[in-house]
Specification:
32% of the residues lie in helices and 20% in strands. By secondary structure, it is α/β, with parallel strands linked by helices. The protein has 3 domains: 1-84 and 281-311, NAD(P)-binding Rossmann-like Domain (Rossmann fold); 88-273, Rossmann fold (3-Layer(aba) Sandwich), CATH 3.40.50.720; 312-396, ACT domain (Alpha-Beta Plaits), CATH 3.30.70.260. Strands 8-7-6-9-10-11-12 form a 7-stranded parallel β-sheet, with helices on both faces. It has a 5-stranded parallel β-sheet with strand order 2-1-3-4-5. Strand 6, helix 6 (151-162) and strand 7 form a beta-alpha-beta unit. The longest helix has 21 residues, at 282-302. The chain is elongated. The protein starts with 5 loop residues before the first strand and ends with a strand.
């Protein structure tokens, strides 16, 4: 890798451990670089106008991609990468902390102590007189329901079992990989409603979609076992805040612990709101940055796709002397046939080929034994439905 080839434009502060994954002799990495090959960010709200035509990939050093125009980038044939699971332990620990804060009424108890004054004898009497207000509950034997068994949900479920809780889980789209990680003691719920009706504690770990917006409403909160605690360290909009406030006022809900403060929730004595601390540990920031940096490098240098939110997983070993075509296109019939015909018409031998699809999008990697002429790239780019075409030369 002697030649300098790729430019990565960085938004936000990215962990140095991640940036170190880009070899200085092969990459230029800097803030808001002109004509970048890739964009790496965290919380920056990326607009379509900020993504020049040179960009081949966008990556977020985190899990959610709500701040990235994914649909617009997909239409341009640009993959968007994230770091699923890299911050899972950090979020798991915060969920467990929220559970303990709510169970032992620690937040109002701390506020109570902070408001005391007087000498030690006076403080002692005030503490002894006041502590009965903050009597809590222990976790062993209590039931936790986990909605969403991805990397975070699995860790939360397993940790709760270790604390002696009974645990139910629900996730109709659970991956085989996450299923292997889930403790066999976690019981399966048949639906969200089934899970909630069995649980005193409910923790949500699902992405924000139309189907999950206001997933937790008043009727569902009312069906929880008492005393009930709701934990939301996923996305604010998954929970109906008005329903939470009504449930707290009616005594239906004992406490709400979340990572998303809002004007409605502010200063409510039974709301424990942390300032979006889910992934805010040095370890999580390092893990996320390293993970997406390695994914970006692999995509730029080989065309392989891992952990993309809009592209299919596509991994093909690349021969040392082979030229690789990377083609993103609409998932329609005869696309591969048109591509291979174009190659055959120019007497290019196909050494290997991989075609993967995800919904309306398909991605094809084609290895050939000789140089790919620009005329062929233009010809393939002109095929109706082709979104992007890239050639990776040997030793790239």
């Amino acid at each position: 890798m002697a030649a300098l080839k790729y430019r990565v434009s960085v938004y936000n502060s990215i962990s140095a451990k991640g940036l170190e994954r880009f070899p200085a002799g092969h990459y230029i990495v800097g803030k808001a670089l002109p004509s970048p090959d890739a964009i790496l960010l965290r919380s920056h709200a990326l607009s379509v106008e900020e993504v020049p035509a040179t960009v081949k990939a966008v990556a977020r050093a985190g899990t959610g991609v709500n701040n990235i125009p994914v649909a617009a980038l997909t239409a341009r044939g640009v993959p968007v990468f994230n770091a699923p699971g890299a911050n899972a332990n950090a979020v798991k620990e915060l969920v467990i902390a929220g559970m303990l804060l709510a169970a032992r009424n620690l937040s109002p108890a701390l506020d109570f102590v902070r408001g005391l004054s007087g000498d030690d004898a006076t403080l002692h009497k005030l503490v002894e007189d006041g502590k009965k207000t903050f009597v809590g509950m222990e976790l062993p034997g209590r039931t936790l329901g986990v909605i969403g068994l991805g990397a975070i949900g699995v860790k939360v479920a397993n940790a709760a079992l270790d604390l002696g809780m009974q645990v139910y889980g629900f996730d109709p789209a659970m991956t085989v990989q996450n299923a292997w990680q889930l403790h066999p003691g976690v019981r399966q719920a048949t639906s969200v409603d089934d899970l909630i009706s069995k649980s005193q504690f409910v923790s949500v770990h699902v992405p924000l979609l139309d189907a999950t917006r206001n997933l937790i409403n008043y009727e569902r909160l009312k069906s929880m076992k008492k005393p009930s605690v709701l934990l939301n360290f996923a996305r604010a909009e998954i929970v109906d805040e008005d329903a939470v406030l009504k449930a707290l006022a009616d005594g239906v809900l004992h406490a709400y612990a979340c990572d998303f403060p809002s004007q409605k929730l502010q200063h409510h004595p039974k709301v424990i709101a942390t300032p979006h601390l889910g992934a805010s540990t040095n370890e999580a920031e390092d893990n996320c940055a390293v993970m997406v940096a390695e994914q970006l490098r692999e995509f730029l240098e080989t065309g392989n796709v891992r952990n993309s939110v809009n592209f299919p997983e596509a991994v093909l070993g690349k021969g040392q002397n082979q030229h690789r075509l990377c083609i993103a296109n609409a998932n329609v019939p005869n696309m591969v046939g048109q591509i291979t015909t174009a190659l055959a018409n120019r007497n290019l031998n196909i050494a290997d080929l991989l075609n993967k699809s995800r919904g309306d999008l398909a991605y094809t990697l084609v290895d050939v034994d000789s140089v790919v002429p620009q005329e062929l790239v233009r010809e393939i780019s002109a095929i109706h439905g082709v979104l992007s075409v890239r050639v990776i030369a040997p030793d790239a």
